[in-house]
Request: fold
Amino acid sequence: MQIKVQVNGEAYVDEVEPRLLLVHYVRERLGLTGTHWGCDTSNCGACTVLLDGQPVKSCTVLAVRADGHAITTIEGIEHPDGSPSALQEGFRQKHGLQCGFCTPGMILTGTALLRDNPHPSEHEIREGISGNLCRCTGYENIVKAVQWAAEHAEESAVK
Amino acid sequence: MIVAPQKNGSTFGDSMLRKEDARFVRGSGHYVDDVQLKGMLHLSLLRSPVAHARLKSIDVSRAKAAPGVKMVITGADLAAHNLAWMPTLAGDTQAVLATDKVRFQGQEVAFVVADSRYHAQDALELIDVEYEPLTVLVDPHKALEPGAPIIRDDKPGKTDNTCFTWEVGDKGAVAAAFARPDAVVVKQQIFYPRIHPAPMETCGAVADYDRAMGKMTIYMTSQAPHAHRTLFAIVAGLPEENIRIISPDIGGGFGGKVPIYPGYVCATAASLLLGKPVKWMESRSENLMADSFARDYHMTSEIAATRDGKILGTRVHIVADHGAFNAHAQPGPEWPTGFFPIFTSCYDIPAAHASAVGVYTNKAPGGIAYRCSFRVTEAIYCIERTMDVLADELGMDAVELRKKNLITKEQQPYRSIMGWEYDGGDYPAALDVALKMADYPALLKEQEEARKEGRLMGIGFTTFTEIVGAGPGKKCHIAGLEMFDSAELRLHPTGKAILKLGVKSQGQGHETTFAQIVAGELGIPAEDILVEEGDTDNTPYGLGTYGSRSTPVAGAATAVVARKIREKAKRIAAHLLEAAVDDLEWTGDAFRVKGSPDQRKSMAEIAFAAYTNTPPGEEAGLEGVAYYDPPEMTYPFGAYIAVVDIDRGTGVVRVRRFIAVDDCGNRINPMIIEGQMHGGLAQGIGTALMEVIEFDETGNHLNSSFMDYQIVTALEVPNFELGEFVTPSTHHPLGARGVAESPTVGSPSAIVNAVVDALSPWGVRHIDMPMTPARVWEVLNAKGIAE
Reply:
């Protein structure tokens, strides 16, 4: 089947098998390997991307479902000048990552969370990221990373 | 809450931000599954649907004809290349692909190589296997019964399911202690269930054989790339100089990426046979079903003590379930229970004895050291649980009992009855710090109030010492390779440096921490030091990262090589300053002439001179390599307090507070240490509350996805309260001990002790992990306190 998708602002037209998963389309066809494959059952969230701005687990979305839609992956999150977004910087500042495998999914989920709720409480953050698993950090520093981004959103946007 | 001071510098002791994060936050980390090579093929493994059966026949003809399929290989095919079986690190053998029987559900039976993942997976469906079912043994006690079917009938002369027997300690002395007329004896059955490290990245490899040059490059999720290279040379018969293992970014390991799995061998064999790159990347279900599990220890634990709480002796017997193949990753077959002999822990215990029987069952092979220095988690859980049982028996406060038996500062360096020589520390003082942080008297008062109101609140303790940093090489090895580690350091003419290590980070932040060690030794900013690991062609030989050994062993090697370089730098500085070597002193970043502070040469100036103005008789360059064999292990210790609330309606246990005071010796990067603590504590909470791998009676794996194998989310963990306690290790050139495993070692018992404490007024003395709502509710219901 032919699909037309926008990925990180670029338009793609591709022939895909109907069963091709979005995670494999993004990773293997487009070479955007920042989206990771962690569990197959949409539990871990390592494969999270934004579909028209909403976080989805790309291991349980067919590529054909993305036809006519816009996808944002971790590679499309930084500022146009290549500097990290406030949330990307927050993860670095607050040691919100260790092995880095869950980090892209966390950042995409967190990005959508902060867009919808620019000043979330700690509980709202914990609830918001509870569909993304991290085996390394114990989450506390991820929460702090999101809080850091909330506090620094404006200066980052100005940049 | 005590937090480490945030220092903005970039040398030893600073909470420097991590250098590696620049790529990880952009998604430009490079993991094995990100490797895409020209003409790369994909390998999928056919796994057994049954736990114990004889292989009657395998028909691969339909699979071979399927679209995109390049190759289908069975155990018989591998046997023709003498590759159907491989040695395990434990000195046993393991089937790469089954030839005679399958011995656990999920065992590798055949593989398909195709032009895509999808085609390889499709073709698996077309392989026809006929299995003749055999009696399944999932309970190790039943497997030990006379007449039980022999699982390992591949081993000549095998007449039972024992995989090893072991004992240590003085049985007679312990028996005498238990026989004393004044002895109070407690005995508790304690099960540490089978769990899984479950790193977010599963295991995989890309094997790329260059037929023209005879070179095999294997990108691999490996915590020990050099040791794996040597094992590949031995197993596959390839010349070692023609094997290059590249362990790129690793998405968490926790001990699960130490063993060699059949999939790695299959990908390598396929690439050899096809002359093309072949990728194998397992799914989450494969990871949870077939890769090495951890724990699965059935322990019978006893302590004898005086009526006033002084321990006289302790003994433990373990039934250790190792699954179908003994594939543990302990430091040599001489350590079948790893470092379980640390089980007398931080207590002054005059007599101890431990024994174990290892058992083959129809389950996945193991057991690995999941975030623990070789069975230390089991040992500490055992003694800490039994301590609380003893406190209950004596009617004594759990803290008071511990204080009565803790090794004191005056007894250090303490030699334990098991023969370990501890490396200093004030254990009672560390406990006092934790008690103060928790405000124990206030907690007790709060608990009293809660009980009056009918709420279930528990306070649990653990005091412990770890044992990490294996070697020494004469005691600890992997397949005969002594457990030293290495560092190669090279200063460039412009004063920048590159450090190459034999260990391999899986998220621990080596690129930052090890640069900070060099910065501390040579006065170069850590930003200017590039750390490289994981590529066996470009790093010195080392044994890898597990058992908290990176800082204790490779960290020491880094300090030693930096000091060697500093010695040479001193001679170059003397030449530049036209002074005698003995007249120079080191200032932290430069050598200066004693008494004339203006006459100095910085390390950058010396490095430049090493290439541009070499002293007569001196070799050019400024570099070195060190192989460090630790004289002793290191002993990080800690005191933990958990506060839990139990919902009487649902049985849900909530860890409300967790106070952790750890002494890992001198702290290289406090921020990273705290991060390691957080992660380990979260895993410990998962272990205590929800993680378990179980089987039904026919050997069906019941937890083969993240829907059934529960790991903690952000909602189940509190913000942790970390205390700092620093006693430099006397066994390490930097005074450091290693840290990342203490929290997984110490936290499960603190949480279980807290749950039991909450229920102790109803006579509850022990509940086995995991403390799932169902299990806790059953106890509440049995005691008539469920709401």
